[in-house]
Write a structure and sequence with these properties.
Layout lengths: L8 E4 L8 H15 L6 H20 L5 H15 L6 H14 L10 H9 L3 E6 L3 H10 L8 E4 H4 L6 H11 L6 E5 L2 H9 L4 E5 L11 E3 L10
Parallel strand pairs: 1-2, 1-4, 2-3, 4-5, 5-6
Length: 230
Amino acid sequence: MKKLNGITDVFFDLDHTLWDFDKNSALTFEKIFEMNKIKIHLDAFLSFYEPINLNYWKLYREERIDKASLRFGRLHDAFEALDFKVPEDMIYRLSSDYIEHLPSFNHLFDHTLEILDYLYRNYNLHIITNGFEEVQHGKLINSKIYNYFKTITNSEKVGVKKPHPKIFNHALKVANVNAGQSVMIGDNYEADILGAINIGMDAIFVGASYKEVYRTVKRVDDLIQIKRYL
């Protein structure tokens, strides 16, 4: 596998790339349902919630809904799909509890610390995330990976979300590096990979899914395989 030449800075997405969002999210729901005495089968709820949540995040990235609509709608729609009646005020409470408790669970994907240790010795590391600012900071701190990163660019501060070029250009400016010296690593083809490529960065897609469109893109199944390129 050919190594990337001239790269000095590595930009990571956080959720679903380093931080195991689905696992941590499931543990959070288990906790808040117990706290609020919601008697629901967790696996059944998650089977509806997870695809609904992904769709809401797509709408949020595309500026078609705001943060409040995302937080309420994904829960409301999941309960509706299950035909499980939850009062509106309880949905708002669960939404708030979810955001509060999510950073308390901090499972990372396999080899996250190993690849960060490896890269930290030779590259400047950074985060570009679309997640909510108040939550992302807690995730980085509590999972003990905050100190690996020289800069953290959050969409809420910049005012646009990946794949908008403004967030990538802002991240490069803050990091004081050129696009040609930088690589973006993430799990979302549209937001992370195309967003980076469109402003002249290199990119590495992390994930097991393999579509025709990905064949021209550098790709790894496991974070440790990043060593093939860097």
